[in-house]
Amino acid sequence: MKITAIKTFPIWIGHRNQFILKIETDEGIQGWGEAGVSGRELAVEGAARHYREFLIGKDPMRIGALWQEMYRSQYFEGGRALTGAISAIDIALHDVVARKLGVPVYQLLGGAHRHTVPGFVTSTSLDGPKVVEDAKRLVADGWEAIRFVPGHTDKGGDADLFEPRESVGITAEWIIKVREAVGFGPVLGIDYHHRLNVAETASFCQRLPSGTLDFLEEPIRDECPDAYAALRQMTPVPFAIGEEFASKWQFVPYIEQGLTNFARIDVCNVGGPTTNRHGLPRARGHFTCGVSGNDFVVCIEGIQPPDSDA
Q1: CATH code, 159
Q2: Are residues 55 and 76 both part of a single domain?
Q3: Which one, 48, 218, 256, 266, has the greatest CB density within 10 A?
Q4: Which residues of 275-301 are buried (b: 16+ CB within 10 A; e: fewer)?
Q5: Is 115 contained in some domain?
Q6: Is the per-residue pLDDT at 264 higher than 90?
Q7: Would you say residue 193 has pLDDT above 80?
Q8: What is the pTM of this model?
Q9: Which domain holds residue 254?
Q10: How far is CA 50 from CA 6, 10, 86, 104, in A?
């Protein structure tokens, strides 16, 4: 079996862009993949076209060897756009091989480990009574873990304007009210999308009564592990870090230094399932929870996107 085409589709889905990719083979088997570098889909598409030039004609069954060739065959390795493209291709290769063998993709990754997979749901922003009602509704629906969006006030007529200091106060106020409303049973977390600095994050966490928050996701940028180490000394709130990471190596200081309690491994950013098999064992070896940052689709039926790269 040989790869005959790699087609790219940067498309609009709902309220955001998304990059999906299709691999075709000479046996008529095709596989789908996705990259998670939101907002930079055209850069990922360019990288995927580079890889396409030497992947066409190769055997898709050699997933690991092709991953190494994509990552290591250039002088400038890694980076989000490159590993986003590698992720999409790696996912699609797993899809092709699984279809060829007639098995689910999870059989290629060691087989099923459980019959159900726990997940979390994302609620609305923490800026008013509606978030309390939404949290109560989600708990009543059976959700045991809920993630929230930080609140912020719009004072200038620009709904996208984010003022960190204003957000700290209103977000703390309403997450406390949510916890009071739902009790200590559900897991509650907030994803700040690295919009705070160290001082602002410490200030936010110190406003919360103990037990209010079960995890705080990516409060600050990840380029400097030392900044997280300083923050770790200021608050006991567990951190969830890693959704932005573009390689398994970026996780090393965060896991080995105990800076993250939840490794947010995004299979669509970090290099696909091939890399994910290495990242999760390292996290588990340090008793760090591995949490998938993106659910990838490995079998899309009935979807025929526009052939933008025919």
Answers
A1: 3.20.20.120
A2: yes
A3: 48
A4: bbeebbebbeeeebebbbbbebebeee
A5: no
A6: no
A7: yes
A8: 0.85
A9: 121-292
A10: 11, 16, 11, 29
